[in-house]
């Protein structure tokens, strides 16, 4: 357990930075590469602990995967690349690894057991086990399939038509990964749009998938082909430096080659609405949208965030709460009850820790209410073992008069092992 002393820099943040590869895309590239035919080379892969858990699980399933610098080489041999593991699959702290792998293993004709850390053990899995049972797979876990350890005996699947009861890309992706192996056409109805990296990657790997309105259709029995994947910078990681630049006087930061997939850019919309000085330059290329984001220190106004925007910024809400402490007026975040089932209860974690720094912030049933602008002061705070809470508090320390002591700061390695080095480059 590491406690870090964090002090305010003497001037604003300045310079250019390329944040590490997108976590959602890195996970998916390993998964699709593992079940495709032929070699997949992944460029700018995120070497964070969550994505390394995904690699370790697929190695345990018999796939040859090599890490070469910031590239990963996956030697897929089609769906049969995966073989019955003799050991438990350890999904660490990663919800994405656990839930997407459940969908993949649902169609494989063998038995496997999945177990993660203490945080994963508290996260709901019934949202995935329920639809997978409808496909005809045998899947179970603690409390009627709701919690790890999970046991799966995959089988011959029959396509399903399913309306997502929660706006979750992980649930949608698990269903699509099972659907690829099922007999017939699987349909997923998505009432609220969630990140679509799985759909995009199915196409990149030579598969077919259609979308009509809110319905996604996918034919089973498709064979995918290995390919080369370039992973854009993670906008969810960039969000910490976007916020830092907007709240630390004198800052001007350019975040190069960041993913701009429109199912992920809710933070840009919110920051622009709050009055942040920003400039986005999109680049052309294949696959995912990508570009440079320039952010400067700005006077900010409070805003209301809810409804269909929530899935497009769900992981950025902790740092948006910090941003709101530096905006004039009231910011209301609602419709975000999903925050309660992330690595921690992120409503409780953000409200408790930012209060210690002097923020005017209150929890509500489905979000929080923040009143600004408030000057923050140093205190002893804790990440709660949650990477996004840890980075939010580290960004807060850039504007506190006295030092912040951040407990459990190592949680940041889950998604951004170079976070403090990168912060140092912009503040030196
Ligand atoms: O599909 C993904 O890669 C993710 C989806 C989101 O979770 P939910 O699907 O639970 O909303 C997000 O919070 C998570 O960090 C990554
Ligand atoms: C919720 C997150 O990830 P996961 O669900 O994969 O643990 C996150 O990275 O904020």
UniProtKB/TrEMBL annotation:
Residues forming the catalytic site: 315 (proton acceptor)
Keyword Transferase in annotation: yes
Subcellular location: Cytoplasm
Top-rank lineage group of the source organism: Bacteria
GO molecular function: 3-phosphoshikimate 1-carboxyvinyltransferase activity
Residues annotated as binding phosphoenolpyruvate: 23, 95, 123, 170, 346, 388
Enzymatic reactions: 3-phosphoshikimate + phosphoenolpyruvate = 5-O-(1-carboxyvinyl)-3-phosphoshikimate + phosphate
Signal peptide (residue range): none
The protein's annotated pathway: Metabolic intermediate biosynthesis; chorismate biosynthesis; chorismate from D-erythrose 4-phosphate and phosphoenolpyruvate: step 6/7
InterPro entries associated with the record: Enolpyruvate_Tfrase_dom (IPR001986), Enolpyruvate_Tfrase_sf (IPR036968), EPSP_synthase (IPR006264), EPSP_synthase_CS (IPR023193), RNA3'P_cycl/enolpyr_Trfase_a/b (IPR013792)
Residues that, per the record, bind 3-phosphoshikimate: 23-24, 28, 168, 170, 315, 342
Pfam family, one: EPSP_synthase
Record's keyword terms, sorted: Amino-acid biosynthesis, Aromatic amino acid biosynthesis, Cytoplasm, Transferase
Start and end residues of each Enolpyruvate transferase domain: 9-423
Principal subcellular localization: cytoplasm
CDD domains on file: EPSP_synthase
EC number: 2.5.1.19
Keyword Cytoplasm: yes
Subunit structure: Monomer.
Family membership noted in the UniProt record: Belongs to the EPSP synthase family.
Protein function: Catalyzes the transfer of the enolpyruvyl moiety of phosphoenolpyruvate (PEP) to the 5-hydroxyl of shikimate-3-phosphate (S3P) to produce enolpyruvyl shikimate-3-phosphate and inorganic phosphate.
Protein's name according to its UniProt entry: 3-phosphoshikimate 1-carboxyvinyltransferase
Annotated organism of origin: Rossellomorea oryzaecorticis
Lineage: Bacteria, Bacillati, Bacillota, Bacilli, Bacillales
Gene: aroA
């Amino acid at each position: 357990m590491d406690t870090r002393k964090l002090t305010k820099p003497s001037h604003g943040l300045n310079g250019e930075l390329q944040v590490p590869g997108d976590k959602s895309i890195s996970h998916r590239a390993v998964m699709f590469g593992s079940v495709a035919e032929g070699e997949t080379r992944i460029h700018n892969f995120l070497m964070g602990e969550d994505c390394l858990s995904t690699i370790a699980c697929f190695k345990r399933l018999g796939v040859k995967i090599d890490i070469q610098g910031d590239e990963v080489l996956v030697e897929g041999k089609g769906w049969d690349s995966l073989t019955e593991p003799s050991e438990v699959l350890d999904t660490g702290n990663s919800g994405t690894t656990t839930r997407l792998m459940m969908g993949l293993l649902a169609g494989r004709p063998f038995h496997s057991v999945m177990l993660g850390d203490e945080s994963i053990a508290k996260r709901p899995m019934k949202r995935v086990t329920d639809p997978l049972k409808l496909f005809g797979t045998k899947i179970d876990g603690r409390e009627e399939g709701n919690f790890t350890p999970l046991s799966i005996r995959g089988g011959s699947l029959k396509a399903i038509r399913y309306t997502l009861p929660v706006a979750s890309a992980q649930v949608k992706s698990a269903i699509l990964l099972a659907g690829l192996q099922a007999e017939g056409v699987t349909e997923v109805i998505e009432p609220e749009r969630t990140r679509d990296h799985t759909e995009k990657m199915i196409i990149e790997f030579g598969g077919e998938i259609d979308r009509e309105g809110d319905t996604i259709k996918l034919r089973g029995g498709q064979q995918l082909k290995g390919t080369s994947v370039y992973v854009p910078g993670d906008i969810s990681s960039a969000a910490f430096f976007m916020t830092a630049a907007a709240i630390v006087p004198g800052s001007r930061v350019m975040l190069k080659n960041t993913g701009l997939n429109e199912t992920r850019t809710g933070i840009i919309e919110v920051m622009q609405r709050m009055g942040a000085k920003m400039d986005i330059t999109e680049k052309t290329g294949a696959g995912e949208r990508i570009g440079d984001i320039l952010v400067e220190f700005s006077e900010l106004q409070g805003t209301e965030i809810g409804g269909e925007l929530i899935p497009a910024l769900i992981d950025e809400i902790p740092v948006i709460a910090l941003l709101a402490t530096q905006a004039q007026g009231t910011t209301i975040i609602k419709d975000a009850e999903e925050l309660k089932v992330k690595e921690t209860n992120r409503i409780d974690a953000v409200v408790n820790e930012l209060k210690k720094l002097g923020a005017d912030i209150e929890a509500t049933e489905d979000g929080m209410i923040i009143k600004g602008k408030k000057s923050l002061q140093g205190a002893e705070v804790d990440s709660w073992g949650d990477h996004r809470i840890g980075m939010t508090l580290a960004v807060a320390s850039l504007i506190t008069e006295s030092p912040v002591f951040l407990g459990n700061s190592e949680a940041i390695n889950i998604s951004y092992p170079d976070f403090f080095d990168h912060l140092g480059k912009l503040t030196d």
